[in-house]
């Protein structure tokens, strides 16, 4: 590891000082610089240097350590300290002082470590040794590239098992930092692309055409978490352009489906000003789980079993009117070049002529709403075929490449 690389070690040094002292030693044995951050509100340690004490973390989280101690509200304390740790880490990242982050703990400690790591962008190694590593922590990890490592035993004092795993955790982190990117191929640019089972043929064709032009394509499954991750990475400046073929997550957010990516879907590219080509792919459907989980108010709607655990609901005219305005309003905010492609032959595989969701009249409601609300200086390109045709893929790729070249 190169001299000058900085590892951030964070956790509750008040109750777990022995464990963190050993981790600190393991990291120093790897010849790295270590900055330490204490999220424990009950005290500190003199077993190793502490660079950011709990009072500093609490202040960064918007409170005072004395208040947290007197409040006797564990949940609130965890929230404040996690937020404070994230604020400090964010500042260190902006100063280019973070090459890796490592933490460990039980339930509360894990919560604060994962909250803090939200401030660290993609590509900077993040590892958490946790008693909860085998649980579903997806809500706390979000879209971050955090590595969870099971502690097997509680993080509550050194023993024959914890020593091995702490050593391995330190080694794994340094290994990630030292991983060379020298084998990475140079590309013409990095392009994000949204995809779904019902737009997969289009995505495959677009990916092939763009790769032939030298672009690196990163596809995101539009199931909620995929859209959130794509938006987050765009916000971190990871992409040069986006081919947003599958905006179905907007429909799920509107109707309460299981694939909502939240209110910020279709905003990052506009905010960052990167070229984007947007299509209303799969806005003819809302995703639910098994048939018996479809909300009662939708029981009489047109439903289709895509898989035993996936029920699709056809969007209606009123929903398409709203979705057209939502999509247009988000695109109108773009600081960069943008084009909209309308697949006049259907928005999805099952929306093609002869398929179960084929309904050109309802599709036209969506198209009309987009045309009505979109800014006049934004190009709308109508493709007469279904979204999963080569004609549409070629049109989408041409539109995106034109925007990139103009940019």
What is the CATH superfamily classification of the largest domain? Uncharacterised protein family UPF0261, NC domain
Supply the CATH class of the largest domain: Alpha Beta
Percent of residues in beta strands: 15-25%
CATH topology of the largest domain: Rossmann fold
- The outline comes out as elongated
Instruction: Output the helix-strand order.
Output: EHEHHHEHEHEHEHEHEHHEEEEHEHEH
Main structural class = alpha/beta
Number of domains: 2
Q: What is the number of strand segments?
A: 14
Uncertain regions spanning at least 5 consecutive residues: none
Major beta sheet summary? 6 strands, parallel
The pLDDT mean sits at 94
In a nutshell, what does this entry contain?
Helix content is 40%, strand content 18%. It has helices at residues 17-28, 54-60, 65-71, 74-94, 107-117, 138-141, 160-178, 200-212, 225-235, 249-255, 268-272, 317-332, 360-373, 390-406; strands at 6-11, 33-38, 100-105, 126-130, 146-150, 189-195, 215-221, 241-244, 276-278, 285-288, 303-307, 310-314, 338-343, 379-383. The longest helix is centred in the first third of the chain and has 21 residues, at 74-94.
């Amino acid at each position: 590891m190169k001299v000058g690389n900085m590892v951030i070690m964070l956790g509750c040094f008040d109750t777990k000082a022995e464990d963190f002292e050993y981790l600190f030693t393991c990291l120093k044995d790897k010849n790295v610089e270590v900055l330490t951050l204490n999220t424990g509100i009950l005290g500190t340690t003199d077993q190793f240097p502490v660079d950011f004490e709990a009072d500093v973390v609490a202040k960064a989280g918007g409170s005072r350590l004395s208040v947290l101690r007197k409040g006797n509200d564990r949940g609130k304390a965890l929230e404040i300290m996690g937020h404070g740790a994230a604020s400090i880490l964010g500042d260190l990242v902006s100063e280019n002082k973070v090459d890796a982050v490592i933490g460990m703990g039980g339930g509360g400690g894990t919560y604060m470590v994962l909250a803090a790591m939200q401030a660290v962008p993609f590509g900077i190694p993040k590892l958490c040794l946790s008693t909860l590593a085998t649980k579903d922590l997806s809500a706390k990890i979000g879209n971050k590239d955090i590595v969870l490592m099971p502690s097997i035993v509680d993080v509550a004092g050194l023993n024959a098992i914890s020593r091995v795993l702490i050593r391995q955790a330190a080694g794994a982190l340094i290994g990630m930092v030292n991983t060379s990117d020298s084998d990475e191929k140079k590309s013409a640019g990095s392009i994000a692309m949204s995809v779904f089972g019902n737009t997969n043929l289009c995505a495959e064709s677009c990916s092939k055409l763009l790769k032939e032009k030298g672009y690196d394509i990163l596809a995101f499954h539009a199931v909620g978490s995929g859209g959130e991750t794509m938006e987050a990475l765009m916000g971190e400046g990871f992409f040069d352009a986006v081919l947003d073929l599958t905006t179905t997550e907007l429909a799920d957010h509107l109707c309460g489906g299981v694939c909502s990516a939240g209110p910020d879907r279709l905003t990052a590219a506009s905010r960052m000003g990167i070229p984007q080509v947007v299509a209303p792919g799969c806005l003819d459907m809302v995703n639910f789980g098994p048939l018996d989980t479809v909300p009662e108010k939708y029981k009489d709607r047109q439903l289709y079993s895509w898989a035993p655990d996936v029920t699709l609901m056809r969007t209606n005219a009123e929903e398409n009117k709203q979705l057209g305005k939502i999509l247009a309003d988000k695109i109108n905010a773009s600081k960069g070049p943008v084009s909209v492609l309308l697949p006049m032959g259907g928005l999805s595989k099952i929306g093609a002529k002869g398929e179960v969701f084929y309904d050109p009249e309802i599709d036209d409601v969506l198209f009309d709403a987009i045309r009505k609300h979109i800014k006049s200086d934004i190009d709308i390109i109508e493709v007469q075929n279904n979204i999963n045709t080569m004609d549409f893929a070629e049109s989408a790729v041409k539109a995106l490449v034109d925007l990139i070249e103009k940019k």
